[in-house]
């Protein structure tokens, strides 16, 4: 059934912005639990276990009601975290050109305004959840979701995802979510974001 994907870099690769211990616990404990609980929810529904996790989340109405909440929570946790690991990198590439940058400027006026609005969305999410940059039929949009909800469930394609659950940052930043959000910009994998934007 579903398995925990390997990190695409060592646990310590995102230091000093995201610490090694947080990465170990976040990936090996939290994400692993979402995968385990998703598999448990689907054990009596082999026809669903053959689907991609994103397919499940994109069409929650097709999930039997008795397991829909579990699939939404644990399937969402699996999908969201799998994306989260993939759009971070120690390479510090920056976003200097490309279709994504052009679209960000067209939508938000300039890159700095986009960063400010995205960071504000991450800070405004009360409690646990995520901040997103998504692609819709009409362009780019910034939004935030509670818990492990995914933009896929509303037909929107994620390009960037920032986990603002406390387990993502509390060991290093304690209650200072703003410091974590600011630090996170240093590890965004912009080439991957560009690939997601084009896909």
Description:
- It is a single chain.
- The protein has 199 residues and is mainly alpha-helical.
- The protein folds into two domains: 67 residues, Orthogonal Bundle (Helix Hairpins), CATH 1.10.287.990; 100 residues, 3-Layer(bab) Sandwich (minor pseudopilin epsh fold), CATH 3.55.40.20.
- The chain is built from nine helices and three strands.
- Strands 2-1-3 form a three-stranded antiparallel beta sheet.
- Strand 1 and strand 2 form a beta hairpin.
- The longest helix is centred in the first third of the chain and has 23 residues.
- The protein starts with 19 loop residues before the first helix and ends with a helix.
List the helices and strands and how they pair.
Layout: H1 20-42, H2 46-49, H3 53-58, H4 65-86, H5 99-108, H6 111-124, E1 129-136, E2 139-146, E3 157-163, H7 170-173, H8 177-184, H9 190-198
Antiparallel strand pairs: 1-2, 1-3
């Amino acid at each position: 059934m579903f398995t925990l994907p390997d990190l695409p870099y060592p646990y310590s690769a995102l230091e000093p912005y995201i610490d090694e211990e947080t990465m170990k616990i976040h990936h090996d404990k939290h994400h692993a639990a979402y995968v385990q609980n998703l598999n448990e929810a689907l054990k009596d529904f082999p026809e669903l276990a053959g689907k991609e996790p994103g397919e499940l989340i994109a069409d929650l109405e097709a999930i039997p009601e008795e397991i829909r909440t579990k699939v939404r929570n644990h399937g969402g946790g699996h999908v969201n975290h799998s994306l989260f690991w993939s759009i971070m990198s120690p390479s510090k590439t920056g976003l200097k050109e490309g279709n994504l940058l052009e679209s960000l400027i067209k939508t938000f006026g300039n890159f700095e305004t986009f960063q400010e609005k995205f960071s504000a969305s991450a800070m405004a999410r009360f409690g646990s959840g995520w901040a997103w940059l998504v692609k819709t039929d009409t362009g780019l949009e910034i939004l935030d979701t509670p818990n492990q909800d995914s933009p896929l469930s509303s037909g929107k394609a994620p390009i960037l995802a920032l986990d603002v659950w406390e387990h993502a940052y509390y060991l290093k930043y304690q209650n200072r979510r703003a410091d974590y959000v600011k630090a996170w910009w240093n590890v965004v994998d912009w080439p991957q974001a560009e690939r997601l934007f084009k896909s």
